[in-house]
């Protein structure tokens, strides 16, 4: 007897999954391996940057008061008593009408409070001494890069969960983190089910296809910041699938299977969840593609039964797996980044369920535009290669036309959305 499945709205399905989302563990990695990871702690400034007043120019450090009367007609002469480069500290005290030759990055000598750019000073020698003359006054503070002007001690520079981009990497180095506490990468088991599946290296034979989903998901897992664990191909045999899943579960944070979740004779995932004693959170979502997406939990561990159809499988990962991965990585915005774009083509098909159209979003003149890419069917694989976004057409609508403003969820953005 065919069990009747109840489609639930996408937002409700996501909510049900998110109830099981947990923050992950921390680990320390060398700074050289921190790029691309997620901070496990807020990053505080434990000192001012710059840590001392310094010169932003090559030139001369002076006492501004000495230049008060300088003009084109009456240049002021100062004696240059010392030269310091970046990394050096002036050894002498600067007295009235004295200056220090200073290079960019060197600390401002005691007593000085302004810097004259090299180009604005005339330098000359007289009786074995070096002098400069300047033809305009400088105010106290002119051309000084002040201690703490970049950041003050105690400020939070990047919050826990921040993606470590090259800029964050620079901050970590600035504050002396030779090792960085980052979120441990969740481990995600991936098993592709189906008797029809060939290995990538096998030649095609009648009735069979190559397993593309496992490799697609592997890349999605990596893109979302987790580690894929390849559990291989499983035949459409409930005993073998059950044994493989039971064996794999203890070593992974989540388990993804593809295929076998619909109502076919060889769709065994529902039976397997039952035999495992897992609670099925839902087995039908009002979305296309991916309506058969099934998610179950066993002792709090999520089992994602993604569709066998490539486009449905892909969308299932981005909607349901990505946010739990990002939550483990401490993100407060774990979902795909949501924005709006102008549709560049008519999309007149009705949308009985919310439709996620694989799309290419581009920016032109400060406006985002969305073009559907390739055929909009769940068994299509080619459209995925061009997609950088999902255009979201709500269930119960039809007749979107070129020029309509539509919701788009970006696939490649490091930024996410809270909801
Ligand atoms: N009578 C009904 N039939 C179907 C329904 C339905 O509601 N009633 N739902 C359809 C929808 S929607 C989808 S999506 C698919 C989902 O099927 P399954 O998740 O059970 O997946 P399979 O049956 O195993 O395979 C479907 C399709 O995908 C190909 N596939 C499977 N695994 C891979 C892989 N690793 N790499 C590439 N391609 C894969 C497989 O060969 C099939 O062509 O069910 C509809 N049917
Ligand atoms: O799960 Mo099926 O893709 O709705 O397309
Ligand atoms: Mg099936």
TrEMBL record:
Coiled coil residues, start to end: none
EC number: 2.10.1.1
Pathways involved: Cofactor biosynthesis; molybdopterin biosynthesis
Pfam families reported in the protein's UniProt record: MoCF_biosynth (PF00994), MoeA_C (PF03454), MoeA_N (PF03453)
Catalysed transformations (reactions): adenylyl-molybdopterin + molybdate = Mo-molybdopterin + AMP + H(+)
Bilayer-spanning residue ranges: none
Domain MoaB/Mog intervals: 189-327
Matches recorded under PANTHER family: GEPHYRIN, MOLYBDOPTERIN BIOSYNTHESIS PROTEIN
Protein name: Molybdopterin molybdenumtransferase
Source organism (scientific name): Anoxybacteroides rupiense
Origin organism lineage: Bacteria, Bacillati, Bacillota, Bacilli, Bacillales
């Amino acid at each position: 007897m065919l069990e009747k499945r109840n489609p639930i709205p996408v937002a409700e399905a996501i909510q049900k999954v998110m109830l099981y989302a947990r923050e992950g563990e921390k680990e320390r990695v060398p700074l050289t391996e921190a790029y691309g990871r997620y901070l496990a702690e807020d990053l505080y400034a434990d000192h001012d940057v710059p840590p001392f007043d310094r010169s932003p120019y090559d030139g001369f450090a002076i006492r501004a008061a000495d230049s008060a009367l300088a003009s084109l007609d009456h240049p002021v002469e100062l004696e240059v008593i010392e030269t310091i480069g970046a990394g050096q500290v002036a050894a002498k005290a600067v007295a009235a009408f004295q200056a220090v030759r200073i290079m960019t990055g060197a600390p401002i000598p005691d007593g000085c409070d302004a810097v004259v750019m090299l180009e604005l000073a005339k330098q000359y020698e007289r009786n074995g001494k070096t002098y400069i003359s300047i033809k305009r006054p400088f105010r106290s503070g002119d051309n000084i890069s002040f201690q703490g002007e970049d950041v003050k001690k105690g400020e939070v520079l990047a919050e826990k969960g921040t993606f470590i981009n090259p800029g964050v990497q620079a901050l970590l180095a600035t504050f002396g983190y030779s090792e960085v506490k980052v979120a441990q990468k969740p481990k995600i088991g991936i098993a592709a089910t189906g008797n029809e599946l060939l290995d990538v290296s096998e030649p095609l034979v009648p009735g069979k296809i190559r397993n593309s989903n496992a490799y697609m998901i592997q890349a999605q897992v990596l893109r979302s910041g987790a580690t894929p664990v390849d559990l291989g191909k499983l035949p459409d045999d409930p005993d073998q699938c059950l044994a493989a899943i039971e064996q794999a579960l203890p070593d992974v944070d989540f388990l993804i299977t593809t295929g076998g979740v619909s109502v076919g004779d060889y769709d065994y995932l529902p039976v397997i969840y039952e035999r495992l004693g897992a609670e099925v959170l839902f087995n039908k979502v009002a979305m296309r593609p991916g309506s058969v997406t099934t998610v179950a939990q066993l002792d709090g561990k999520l089992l994602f039964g993604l569709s066998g159809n490539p486009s449905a499988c892909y969308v299932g990962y981005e909607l349901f797996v990505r946010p739990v991965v990002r939550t483990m990585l401490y993100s407060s915005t774990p979902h795909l980044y949501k924005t709006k774009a102008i549709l560049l083509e008519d999309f007149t098909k009705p949308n009985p369920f919310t439709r996620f159209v694989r799309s290419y979003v581009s920016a032109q003149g400060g406006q985002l535009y969305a073009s559907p890419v390739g055929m909009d069917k769940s068994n299509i694989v080619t459209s995925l290669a061009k997609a950088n976004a999902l255009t979201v057409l709500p269930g119960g609508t039809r007749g979107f036309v070129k020029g309509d403003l539509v919701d788009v969820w970006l696939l490649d953005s490091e930024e996410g959305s809270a909801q």
